Amino acid sequence: MNQLLKNIYLATFRINTTQNLHTTIPVTAWSKSDVPKSFLKFNKKIYPPQDPSEEPRPAYVCHQKTNFKYSPDKLWYIASFVRGMTVDEAIKQLSFVNKKGAGLVKEAILEAQELAVTKHNVEFRSNLWIAESFSGKGVVIKGIRRHARGRLGEVRYQYSHYFVRLEEGKPPVDYYKRNPLTPQEQLDKWLEQMRKRKITNSF
Prior knowledge:
Largest sheet: 3 strands, antiparallel
CATH class of the domain at 39-44 and 56-190: Alpha Beta
Helix content: 25-40%
Oligomer: single chain
CATH architecture of the domain at 39-44 and 56-190: Alpha-Beta Complex
């Protein structure tokens, strides 16, 4: 009976028993077109000389970590978490985040910090802050999953890119510039809006 079921299975899916089905891909198999190139071009940008009266332009370094096995949607939360932090603070905070993506982001920031000191003439490695931090969608590999009654389902293996730009100097007080008003001014504004309300069809 078992042999009969095996023959039916092979006849249905036309699978040769000598073939080996793999649903993963080795790291060395990525093609050059799968790796983003435009972000690193900012490292090669040449600026004109500055006037002595102008404010000195801070040094920066762009770095990326590409095609690692992680969901870009999950990585976005970790990338947003470290924006506007100093490098030391970001590394310290990521050490306590119990996520696989936190370790990958931490590794990328440390690599960018080392590049800034060795290749971009940054004097102090602690005098850097995270000016940009975002994730991108990498390669998606489609595999198959066997379901009941001889059916097949699709499974997607998602890969991600991580991009970070470190800038020399101190981070801004409010990175997102959410609201320039003080708490008391916000309260006064809200009260004024409430008092201006009008009940429809009233005097």
